[in-house]
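Entry for the shared binder. Reason: the reviewer on the internal report wants the predicted structure included alongside the sequence.
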Amino acid sequence: MKAREVKRAKMCAKYAEKRKALKEAGDWEGLQKLPKNASPVRQHNRCSITGRPKGYMRIFGISRIQFREMASNGLIPGVRKASW
């Protein structure tokens, strides 16, 4: 799944200028002829370590589970477990 997301990101970057030009021209048929994965809407945020799609934290680019483990082990600078 992680490889698919990388593939989608590359495809989106490749066709970004062409999509923009077609949208400005109002050529909807031309947009439909582009590959489906060229659309940025099809991209989904995933954990960079595990590939988990849910519980993603944008600031760190990892899932909540990996964040908790790494924070507990002191692997994320500036983050520590709260205790009171």
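Summary line for the report: The radius of gyration is 18 Å.
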